[in-house]
Batch of 2 targets.
Target 1
Amino acid sequence: MPMLETSQLRPEPSKGKAIVAEHLSKTFRVTKGVLKRTKTPVVAVKDVSFEVDHGELFGLVGPNGTGKTTTIKMLTTMLIPTSGTASILGYNIQKDANEIRKRIGIVLGGERGLYTRVSAVDNLRYFADLYGVPAKLRDKRVEELLQFMGLWDRARDRVETYSKGMKQRLHLARGLINDPQVIFMDEPTIGLDPEIAKETRKMIQELVEKGKTILLTTHYMFEADELCRRVAIIRNGEIVALDTPSGLKKYVMDTSIVEVEGFGITEKEVCQFREASEVLAISAELGEDKQILKIQTARGSEIISQVQEILKNSRIYDMKIKEPTLEDAYLRLVEGSRR
Amino acid sequence: MSIIRVFLSSAIFSFKAQFGWLYPPMWLTMKLVMSLSQMAFFVFVAQFLITTGHSAGPDLVAYIAVGNAMSVLSWNTVFSVINITSHDKWDGTLQLVLATPANRLPLFVGRAMLHVFDGMISVIIGLAYAALLFGVNFGNANILLLFAVVFLTAVAMAGFGLLIGGLSFYYRDPLVFANIFTFILLIFCGVNFPVQELPQLLQPISYIFPLTYGVEAGRKTVAGASLAEIAPLIGQMMIVGITSIVLGYFFFTTFERLARKTGSLESV
Amino acid sequence: MMLGQLRVIYSAFRLAMLHWIADPQWVIPNVIAPFVFTFVALTLFKGAGGPFGLYAVLGGGMMGMWGNTLYSSGFAIEFEKWQGTLEDVMATPSHLLHVIAGKSISNALFGLTNMVAILVIASLIFRVDLGVASPVLFAVSIVLTLLSVSALGLIFASAFVLSRYTQVFANGLEFPIYVISGSMFPIALLPFWIHPASYILGPTWGIEAVRIATAESIVPTVFWVNLSIMVVITFIYVLLAGFLFSKVETKARRDGSLVEA
């Protein structure tokens, strides 16, 4: 495994695509039972195709369990697809897996995935060695990354003493350890304090400005809206829409959102709304002391009487009519086909 | 009636917790292999001594074979009981279990009994190996009495396990503790050589462990002893066993109370 | 190419050492078992005199080395699963084989310290004469046996990657190996049908070579024959492990079983 500077491998910016996914699918066979073991197939990804340009920040959004993480794992060679193919920087994920691994960074995040009994420095040095980062660059890069992530003054402490946010930043540092050209991030800001999340987003943008290609998954719509040049919405293992954020909003251009804030609203009422013909989609936050409904409909004003009818046994504190956002577009696309 | 229900349900829970993730045929294979290999090891060492003229002869093989067959009880019983305690701690279920109003003693007894029967199976397999592979003569033995000795030793060791379990409550790695313990018993319980071979100072330690009495009783029974002849040994063993159960229960409830105060029920 | 691989092995070795230092209490059970067996053997051998003492002690030391390696190989991969790092490691361009090899060597090294501990205790408490006829040959044979045991551990490790019952197997394999390799008695005592199994175990030849190195009058040819056979067997182990690991990696990537369910 030759130890090359990955910058030597950078192709011409306009040549080819950074990521090409063609009809990727993944079915797992899950074994159940102790005495009589049966294998049931579970379809994690049905059919996913898309392309990402060099230097693009591409978003993959969708509800939990719809195949985002599985797709990333296939693209990063952690999983072999059941069918379909993909290439990263022109390298095939099955035939040239090792070439891909040298050039990409993966940030899966979470509480696990780090060696908690040793320090951040030791974690990064280890992975630097596994990625074949040139020896003379290694320690310098480790220091730079930890400084960049604001972890340098705790760098020699055991990772088990880190907060969730610090661990996430360490994951990010590790994702960059081999100076990758393409970076895959799975929900990079989840669980982070708002200020840190904001800084992380800024950092992601800086990386793109430096010419990196980034594919990230998120379920924060505003994040996708803010960061991504294009967004793919994935549902039940398939992509249901792929466009720029403004393009996606056009799905809901002809609609408005009626936002209702009240008390005493339950699932029952939400279901009633779903049944209603004028309601295109609805999202509900049913808190203990307050409930918020966001009702997507063609013409907001016409639905108000119906809202009052359904909610006659509840108390309405506030009702607003708003312009749809990317989140609403997403909701519509994700929920729309449930009817 | 409800006590029996707690007893049974905790036994089943224990089984699932310990073996639910093990495929049953695998459990059996493990039993067959592990019962044999420790015995085989020491038997061959003994035969090494015999063939080079350094030992009394075939009696040594019988001594070691029976001793090792019974020593298995230390592994299954003590190790398993501690394991259960630590698993609960790790799985976070201990808090839930302690929170139920169910009387705690039946709970413990339920689990321990499962391991008693598990241990007995190991010993029986071991004794079968001793007879079939290593030519130990069971002709004079009162088989029923032998079963009784094995059963009582297993119970006594399970009781002893409660003591260890009670003490290991705070310990971070109970598995380490358990591991050490099962091996220490090989030195102290007269498994491979008589307690008298140990340095004078250490000998009293042997008599804390029920296994010491059980192994001796087992050997005597295999050689043809009657109930009357081994009754004193059994009596002593049961005293040790019951004392451990009482102490174990005391320690467990005390530490649990302390743990509630300091909040250390979940492992670090 | 080789340099990169060695670097990975060393890095994994170093990480394993750091973990040992972080959790040193795990050394204890690994020392206890061989110590206990040595104790028992020495007590049994008491009065037998002659080379028996050294026989027991060397056997115990060997067992200490073996127990560690098996423990590390079986447990190492499970450990990665628990930490959630197995996926991340397999996503790097480095081979899992080299990573586990580094760990395996680190744990065999700790096994070596077990052996030293047993030797020290045996000579102090049991007054066993530790005179070694040829220290150089002794050292060479110990080191090579160490590597052989590490390589055997790799083979088990490859099977363990996919099995949910890793720890169970690790517990069960320890003793049979002690018996079959003739660590504390000549394998001639074993039933003839076990002998083939003894002969394919590298450690069997290694232990014999170590014993010869301690003997009063060494027959060099016999020593080198034993050692060479062990080295050849070790090479075969490494090749086999390499083959098994690549099969295992492919299967794990197909089933997604790298993450603890």
Note: Residues 1-14 of chain A have pLDDT under 50 and may be disordered.
Target 2
Amino acid sequence: MSLTGTHHAFASIDERGVNRALQAFFGARPHYLHYGSVPFVTSDSTTETLVQTIAFPGVPGGIAYAIDLTIPTTDLYPPDGALPPPLVLGPDQLSLTTEATITIGCTAGQSADGKRGQVMPVSTSLDVIAIGHPVSVYFSPGVGYVRFQLDQVLVENVAPPSLQAVLDCLLEMILSAVLSSVELPFNIIDVDFFKLILEAGPTIADNQIEIWGDVS
Amino acid sequence: MTALDSRVIGIGSCFAHRFSSPGTLQYSLSPLPSALTTGADRASSYSVTVSADRNDRPPRQYVTVRQANGRLVASPARLEITAGDIVVWSADRTVPFGFRVRGTIGSNVLDSAALVTESIYTHAFGLAGSFEWADANGSDLRGQVTVAMPDAAEGHERWLARIGEGALVHVRGVSAEPADLQIVVGQTVVWAVEDAPGVTITDASLIGIGGSAASAGR
Amino acid sequence: MPSDVVAAVDQTAASTLLGAAEAALGTLTKTGSGSLGPLGASYSASASFSGGTVALSPPDTIAIDNLQIDYSLGLTLSVDLSFLDFCIPQICIWTPFGDICTPKICFDFPTISVTVPFASSATLSADFGLKVHLTSGDWYVDVVIESVPALDLGAAAVLLLAAIGSAISAALLAVPFIGPLLSIAVAVITAAFGLADVTGLLGPIVSAFVAGLTFTVYKQPQNFQVLPALPPYNPAVMVSLAAVSADVQATDKNELVLSVDI
């Protein structure tokens, strides 16, 4: 069976290629993985993104916090191994795993070591697994990209279930927001071999993202 | 190949004059038609001495003008002739553009750029076409020479014979006879000027009068 | 191990890519010299390529049929006219002032340069091979002609021969005193060379454009930009194209396949 099938052009990027592309993307633009309010982050830069503190009555300046993610690793269908229930990786889906570190600035009075009046960081790291699927955005021949839309997120090893539900939702919102900035342009999928007129895909099969079309 | 212009005598053209009376012509040569003035005559380098005695001299004598060390040189520089003889000036291949002869004999001016009487201008036509000619000095003198390609059927030998035949135009005053002349490429036309007010034989296109229609230049 | 990125085109799309490569090649130019019979000849020539139908053949052959080469030629011939040297004899003619005889005038005919502009086209069919190389930091996939085919230049040679004859006649017309000798000159000059000589001159000129003919169907820097910089906080995203290969694969369709590791 030909690669192009009923079309004239075909391009694919495999799992290793996607992961290398993500490493390149987040390596160049790490601010998409590191978010924090003062005092954790003082200004926007290439390495971190400044966010507002969480306003709360009686907490001067609001609740300081930071979210740090590791570079996500993808697994394209078919899965390399079993996923924790209830996650199931189906055709045209990919899984993403990352470690999310959540830090809050604990003001003295709430801290464990009894110090008053100081902001002490308190962190926890969570393993996060998400299931998603690729979506294409096509503008013109050779101009367009593939991005990822999350279908389900699971934070492993959290109890009680109600806390897990809260964290699942929180991390799903955060990961969706992060992934909304991640684009795999056509030119990395076809390494600019041609200007693709997208006709089919992206699909995920055989551990690769595949697209079909014609050339201009 | 020089243009049809008696103001500049080049390869394929000649200036000639019949010296009817004894005397000595002192003359100069110039590469430009306008360069010689009466003042320059005083520095004339060349002469033609006309005597009444024949002394076995031939009735036609020749002066060859050449270019040497950037100057025009007449050879022979001094010529002795008998009254009634014709002197013919012509250029050799060293002369890049042409020359003008101007001088005085007694009270008369002899000027190849202002033909008066007993003066002759010859020109060999190298290209086919229709050549209207006129006087660059402003008189009403004019005419036309039509140069045709020879008939190929006549053959090369016939053409060589034809170019050995000259064609005469007799200029009296400001009239030319014949005014229209037909020749073939390679033939020479001879203008014999008599009783004229100092005229030139010049391609009309050079002086902005009408035009010549040469099939490929002149 | 499979490559990270695979891009493939079938014969239809390969023709499109080849057309773009032909256009990108632009106009090639060459200068040189040769001879046309006894005449010296120098030339400046240019050529461009277009069209052709593509047939992909595994493992690495691209056959192109009816590729059109449009060429133009500025030919300069050196013609020695000294064989025409002659003299106008002394002429003697009566004038009212007496007989006048002019001196004999001899003419040496020069060597003239005759410029012949000419343009035509030819078609060729040939096999091309794939050549992948990394040169000066760029990856190339070139389609390189494997052997120079015989070019049919017969009709063009006939036209060029006529053009040369016309140009020589026109150039001779401007030579003073050539007039009655023109037909002799043209006959002698054009008899000095024939169609075989013209073909012998034209063939190597056009073939020189075909020898080593190379179309680049892929060229990208090894340090490959995925996303451009987006100031102020988003530098360009780059990956390295570590390895590139290309071949023709046959299944139910023959396809040109580019495989890249990043």
Note: The CA atoms of residues 116 and 167 of chain C lie 6 Å apart.
